[in-house]
Design the sequence.
């Protein structure tokens, strides 16, 4: 029997200890998930939340950051964490079974946890087709009808990178020129403001990520967004062909993690059937794990085929994608 004081000293450890999460994702989206994890394992989850600068902070502080697990969105940010040298390649059998290979780094330096599709939000009144392709957005029939945020936003860079992977640089550049010529206005604002553009009649189709449909349709703080959502329907581009472009939210185990074992446990929980269903539902996203039920709201948008390109391959074309977007002066909009 250990002495009483020694037992007290180790109380936290006996109950499973703690894990420090640096999160770009909103605390209210992830906290219920962490509470569940703590109930099951006794491991306390401490969260540092910020909308920006976390990768930089972990890099600058090194071990003093005390960061175990980084949660972020987009392959661009996951790839940046690796490029900045803060990621530890980690792999376990449980993780490999949970996360399909196209949604994780080959060496385990980043892990996808949820998927979001980059889709077309089409006007219910002014678009009369129930299927669409990314390629056709460059055709003259869409002239003056497309709204999209900055071409240099990470979401669009990944989409263009997927076009390079599928069609090569030259065809992708021509495509970008065609889409730019069809824009209704200069790219600006976030994904939801593009849907608002459709609602307001400025454009007929908007490019955006799927979960924003959920955010708008359930928005009690800004209920006018429900009307934006109601004016459009989601078309999954290329779903009947090579598949719709998907991106990820995901996690990285930090190189200097002080509680690496606990970070792995948390990552495995997030990839478990229970964790996947909860995580995806809270963000109106798709689980990466196969066989996990989609939330009812997400199901209501319909089924789709996802492009099976690996996100690692998409990451490899990101730099060239960004250059092409500049070369065609995409963000100048339709007039120049
Ligand atoms: Fe987003």
Sequence:
């Amino acid at each position: 029997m250990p002495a009483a004081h020694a037992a007290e000293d180790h109380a936290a450890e006996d109950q499973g200890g703690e894990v420090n999460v640096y999160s770009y994702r909103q605390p209210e989206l992830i906290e219920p998930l962490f509470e569940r994890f703590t109930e099951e394992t006794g491991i306390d989850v401490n969260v540092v939340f910020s909308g920006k600068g976390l990768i930089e902070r972990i890099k600058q502080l090194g071990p003093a950051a005390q960061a175990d697990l980084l949660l972020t969105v987009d392959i661009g940010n996951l790839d940046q964490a690796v490029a900045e040298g803060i990621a530890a390649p980690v792999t376990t059998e449980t993780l490999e079974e949970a996360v399909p290979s196209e949604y994780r780094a080959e060496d385990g330096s980043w892990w996808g946890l949820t998927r979001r599709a980059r889709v077309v939000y089409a006007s219910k009144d002014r678009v009369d087709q129930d299927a669409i392709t990314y390629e056709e957005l460059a055709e003259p029939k869409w002239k003056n009808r497309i709204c999209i945020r900055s071409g240099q936003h990470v979401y669009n860079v990944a989409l263009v990178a997927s076009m390079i992977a599928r069609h090569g640089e030259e065809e992708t550049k021509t495509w970008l020129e065609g889409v730019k010529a069809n824009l209704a206005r200069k790219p600006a604002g976030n994904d939801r403001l593009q849907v608002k553009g459709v609602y307001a009649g400025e454009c007929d189709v908007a490019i955006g990520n799927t979960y924003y449909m959920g955010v708008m349709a359930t928005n009690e703080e800004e209920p006018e967004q429900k009307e934006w959502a109601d004016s459009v329907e989601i078309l999954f581009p290329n779903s009947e062909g090579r598949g719709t472009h998907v991106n990820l939210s995901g996690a990285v185990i930090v190189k200097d993690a002080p509680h690496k074992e606990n970070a792995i446990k948390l990552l495995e929980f997030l990839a478990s059937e229970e964790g996947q269903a909860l995580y995806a539902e809270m963000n109106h996203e798709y689980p990466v794990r196969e066989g996990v039920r989609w939330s009812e709201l997400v199901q209501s948008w319909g089924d789709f085929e996802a492009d099976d390109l690996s996100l690692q391959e998409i990451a490899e074309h990101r730099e060239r994608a960004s250059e092409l977007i500049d070369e065609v002066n995409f963000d100048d909009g339709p007039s120049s």
